[in-house]
Design brief:
Layout (H helix, E strand, L loop, with lengths): L5 E10 L2 E2 L1 H10 L5 E2 L10 E2 L7 H5 L1 H5 L3 H16 L12 E6 L5 H14 L8 H5 L3 H10 L5 E4 L5 H14 L5 E8 L4 H10 L28 E9 H6 L6 E10 L12 H14 L8 E3 L6 H15 L4 E3 L2 H4 L6 H15 L1 E2 L15 E2 L4 E2 L4 E8 L3 E8 L2
Parallel strand pairs: 5-6, 5-7, 10-11, 10-15, 11-13
Antiparallel strand pairs: 1-2, 1-8, 1-9, 3-4, 7-8, 9-16, 12-14, 15-16
Helix pairs in contact: 4-7, 8-14, 11-12
């Protein structure tokens, strides 16, 4: 069967930069960091986070549904509704058996687990909520979206740490190319900013400790970076084969042209020092798209703001792409969204090639001397309109996506 082009026909975003695609894009292009001191982390050694502003689940979803969903699923349902509407689709108009859901998530619902553990300690096992497991299990991210939209095709959650959202999109791409689905809702969602999880990251030394300057804490590629800032949010993308989108008169926003994945097989948290695993994933994505590195105009870097990861990734980008593409890390604004990060950054890559604009890298005041890249410090034109989005996670799991103008 000839391979079909797969296009993005709908986008939905819930990010620390804003709720909705336009609010998120405006916030990210403004270069205004979302980081702030977080009252829920008051007892933690690191109290900085990037929260979704003004997220009122009861207002957005209705009180009954909101109470039955953990925050990570609430984000995804809001983003999913926006994406499906943006694609011009309705569940009443599709064959649900041909609609799949593939979402990425690193942790599930730790907020629910921590709250119910307190109930267990204070009141006893008989007072634990019957919704504990349905709310916190990672698979419920896809399960709830499938129920929300009557999607009875393949439904799954990918858990590859901070590469989860990107890998979910890659798997969705394969489902469409192989004819297993006609529409796939794909992306990622995460709500890991909880006291226990953040205490764990702090103990690992992974978080920025710039607590006297929270907004300046996430500073990808900057010489004074000292760790990442935790964030939360979701992205859902509607994917279809180009011929199906064209037949129903849909507007393709971009082409999802290639996907690559790899494992470092090196260390539980540290990347391969030479970046060989990430490089394999990026080259595989380029091969899948049938293009060379010199044809890429923009790289949305994983760019976590950690000393080691940024330097390793920068060397990979230089080896694969030379000095051609304009590089950015939107984590300077949003912080690190963990399993949602790759999906959010893929959606931002769609917007970049669709609108011809590369967002800035916030807080980049002095480029790390060992990083030899063209890093965007302000919104800049992208030419050619082809982007690569990199993702990497604990366990050495890597993913890369190629997005091109439709």
């Amino acid at each position: 069967m000839p391979r079909s082009d797969v296009v993005v026909t709908g986008l939905g975003l819930v990010t620390p930069a804003g709720i909705g695609v336009e609010s998120s894009w405006e916030g990210i292009c403004s270069g205004t960091p979302a980081a702030a001191l977080d009252d829920t982390l008051a007892a933690n050694p690191v109290r900085i986070s990037c929260r979704v502003p003004g997220f009122d689940a009861a207002r957005l979803l209705g009180g009954r549904l909101a109470r039955r969903l953990d925050r990570f699923v609430q984000f995804a349902v809001v983003a999913g509704r926006e994406a499906v509407a943006d694609a011009g689709l309705t569940p009443a108009g599709w064959d649900g058996a041909r609609v799949g859901v593939v979402m990425g998530c690193a942790d599930g619902g730790p907020g629910t687990v921590e709250a119910q553990h307190q109930v267990l300690l204070a009141e006893g096992a008989q007072y634990i909520s019957a919704l504990l497991l349905p709310m916190q299990l990672p698979n419920m991210l896809a399960g709830q979206l499938s129920m929300e939209f009557g999607a009875t095709g393949p439904s799954m959650v990918v858990a590859t740490a901070c590469a989860s959202g990107a890998n979910a999109l890659g798997i969705a791409l394969d489902l469409l190319r192989n004819g297993r689905c006609d529409v796939v809702l794909a992306g990622g969602s995460e709500a890991m900013v909880t006291p226990l999880v953040m205490a764990g990251f702090a103990r690992m030394g992974a978080l920025s400790r710039r607590q006297d300057d929270p907004k300046g804490a996430s500073r990808p590629f900057d010489k004074d970076r000292d760790g990442f800032v935790a964030g939360e949010g979701a992205a859902v993308l509607v994917l279809e084969r180009r011929q199906d989108a064209t037949a129903r008169g849909a507007r393709p926003r971009a082409l999802l042209a290639g996907y690559g994945a790899s494992a470092d097989a090196h260390h539980v948290t540290a990347p391969d020092p030479e970046g060989r695993g990430l490089e394999r994933a990026v080259r595989a994505a380029l091969d899948d798209a049938g293009i060379g590195g010199h044809e890429v105009g923009h790289v949305n870097a994983h760019g976590t703001s950690t000393p080691v990861n940024d330097l390793v990734e920068a060397r990979v980008i230089r080896r694969v792409f030379g000095d051609g593409p304009l590089v950015t890390s939107t984590k300077g604004v949003t912080g690190h969204l963990f399993g949602a990060g790759g999906a959010v950054e893929a959606a931002l890559s769609v917007l970049a090639v669709e609108r011809g604009v590369v967002p800035p890298t916030a807080n980049l005041t002095a480029l790390e001397p060992e990083i030899d890249l063209r890093v965007a410090r302000e919104p800049s034109p992208v030419t050619p309109r082809i982007a690569v989005s990199n993702s990497a996670g604990f366990g050495g799991q890597n993913a890369a996506l190629v997005v091109a103008a439709a």
